[in-house]
Design a protein that fits this description.
Helix content is 78%, strand content 0%. It has four helices and no strands. The chain has helices spanning 2-11, 15-19, 28-64, 68-89. The longest helix has 37 residues, at 28-64. The model has no long low-confidence stretch (mean pLDDT 80).
Amino acid sequence: LIVAGVGLFMGGGSSKGKKGGDGDGDGDDGLSASSQAFGILLLFISLCFDGGTGAYEDKLMSVHSVGPFDLMYNIQLGKTILAGVGLLVFNQVHL
């Protein structure tokens, strides 16, 4: 989500629109503006989820007496297991 948001925000449009400046009115400005707006929206959503996740992790660490490294390890282990199950379910393992 972050990579897509930053890519759309920083891309800003095609390279031929930046070089030329001949004013032919090919309509790339509207596409560029909508891509930037979508990129900013993705960045905003990512920051909102990041703030909520950080607060939830602080709550977990204080209530259950879990250290930050143990919490990160267990979260990544859970993500790895879910990704592995997803690969198997969708038949994406090519051996």
